[in-house]
Amino acid sequence: MKDVYEYAIIRVIPRVERGELINAGVLLYCQPRGYLCARVELDEARLRALDPQVDLDGVRHALDVYRRSCGGDEGPLTEEPLGSRFRWLTAPRSTIVQTGPVHAGLTADPEAELEHLVACLVRTP
């Protein structure tokens, strides 16, 4: 049986005014399965190609917030239901690290779907 899931690409836009970006991860939420997970794979060389002066430590920290907010780590979202966390994480931002639009699909295995999305949308061939 397949369930509806929602996902958003986590993007890094080192110089927001230029609009250039790289995909750095995927955030996936499947309400019927109680699943919320962020998988991040930052290609630092590609990011530095867009902005050699980018604050990599700051970007790494911001990306880690997505991962930690999905799990049981202590933080401001710890007590929030998974759906609220997903909505907060996908809310529009004008920062260097942000998510793209939310998309939906059907899956029988959210973990496998997340891996597939990362392989297709984040990793370079």
> What's the helix count?
4
Largest sheet data: 5 strands, antiparallel
User: Which shape, going by the Cα principal axes?
Assistant: globular
Classify the beta-strand content into a percent band.
25-35%
Helicity level: 25-40%
Structure commentary:
34% of the residues lie in helices and 26% in strands. With 125 residues, it is α+β, with helices and mostly antiparallel strands. The chain is globular, with a radius of gyration of 14 Å.
Topology:
Elements: E1 3-12, E2 22-30, E3 35-40, H1 44-50, H2 56-70, H3 82-89, E4 97-99, E5 103-107, H4 110-121
Antiparallel strand pairs: 1-2, 1-4, 1-5, 2-3
At a glance:
This protein has 125 residues and is of the alpha+beta class. It has 4 helices and 5 strands.
What labels would you give this structure?
alpha+beta; 125 residues; 34% helix; five-stranded antiparallel sheet; 4 helices; 5 strands
